[in-house]
Amino acid sequence: MAHSPLAGDLRARVRGKVIERDHREYDAARGVWNALIDRHPDVIVRCADTEDVVACVDAARRHRPIVSVRGGGHQVAGSAVCDDGLVIDLSRMSGVVVDPVARTARVQGGALWADVDAATQVHGLATPGGEISETGVGGLTLGGGLGLMQRTHGLSCDNVISMTIVTADGSVRTANADENPDLFWAARGAGRGLGVVTEFTFALHPLGPEVASAAFVHPAAEAATVFRAWREMALAAPVTIAPQFALWSVPPFPGLPSDLVGVPVVFALGTYIGDPADAGPVLEPFGELGRPILDLSGTSTWVETQSEFDDVLPAGGRYYWKSHFMDDLADETVDMIVENAARRPDSSSAVVVRTVGGAIDRIGVDESAFPHRGARFNVSIDAIWTDPALDEASIAWARELWSALRPASRGVYMNFAGFGEGEDAMWGLILGTHEERVERIRRAYDPDGVFDGAARP
């Protein structure tokens, strides 16, 4: 097989591995978490360091392939890989350096949240991350970053102190409140298409090693009643917790009765962000929402809490997630969600409602590119399955419920935006009133559109 001029250019400059279609590692290198994504790039570069990233960007500017950037490869839409283009793969750049005195962590762009939690918990510290430990730090943070700590300490992007970004001209720039502040503004919530982030510096907060969580399971027949009670509890909850509600089925967690696995149920969940000894009054209302059939509440380490869903959402599953931020959950909305959840094509699929607000709203809506401050809830429609024969039905189910909820929507979370259907219209729902400002900043740093292929959800 003849090697492309792009690959030849890269081999002459990078220390990392250059992988083309005939390479024995090609299929593994192009694979991502979501098995629905089956893309075939021309060249994948597993970068060894920031200098390799600069070389990739310089080559992209000369040869003009479509470009995608891979961190954890966990994004539902599969934005880590592209067809017939260049993948700048940061997965070998996964270092985490903690300063426990300053309470900061320097995190390379290819790190996973598991890497961050392992390093920070040594010092009893944490920063807001995702709910699955195998999620990449970069993708989650650049899209905002919902997680269990969000109402106490804000989004992942709210805790970024500084970033190192390789922009389209090959420059290695520091972006923070003082240097390149426009780039820093845009990267916190609209980070795609601005460049390649090779390092983040995060603020850390005391937490762990143990945390207390509430987890009550109710029968599906009582879903609407429990949902309404949970809604009122969530709206009154203190910021030390971000209540969640899930219409799902009992997953195959260790220790659960085997005859319940796969049975449709609803979950009322919450993790107290603080000393477990103080959690009682905050978690008690979770047990008063109805007549639960299971009480899975208890205390575990923060690392265990952050990784407990890894095994039930494994790499190689099929995933299609769409979401809405919402100001309220009217009774008719609750009924609509319950009715549609009962029609899930696969028992693994779910509708997950997260409570937002709290510390998220302490930052002004114009202080970063993330535009959804002020919302009370995020409703995520998570189609999850393994059988390819269910592809059409599962995607159609998620799209139908998402469309039905759209009149009550105040916007869409970048990281749960389906596959970007509707393109420009979807981008407007993601960025809201910030869309034009983000585009101006993109064009200022990338006037020739080197990263245009990486900018869309």
Provide an overview of this structure:
There is one protein chain. The protein is an alpha+beta fold and 457 residues long. It has three domains: 5-89, Uridine Diphospho-n-acetylenolpyruvylglucosamine Reductase, domain 2 (2-Layer Sandwich); 96-206, Uridine Diphospho-n-acetylenolpyruvylglucosamine Reductase, domain 3 (2-Layer Sandwich), CATH 3.30.465.10; 210-424, Vanillyl-alcohol Oxidase, Chain A, domain 3. It has 14 helices and 20 strands. It is globular and about 65 Å long.
In short:
With 457 residues, the protein is α+β, with helices and mostly antiparallel strands. 27% of the residues lie in helices and 23% in strands. The protein has 3 domains: 5-89, 2-Layer Sandwich (Uridine Diphospho-n-acetylenolpyruvylglucosamine Reductase, domain 2), CATH 3.30.43.10; 96-206, Uridine Diphospho-n-acetylenolpyruvylglucosamine Reductase, domain 3 (2-Layer Sandwich); 210-424, Vanillyl-alcohol Oxidase, Chain A, domain 3 (3-Layer(aba) Sandwich).
Question: What global shape is seen?
Answer: globular
Query: Structural class, from helix and strand content?
Result: alpha+beta
Largest beta-sheet characterization: 9 strands, antiparallel
Proportion of beta-strand residues? 15-25%
Please bin the fraction of helical residues: 25-40%
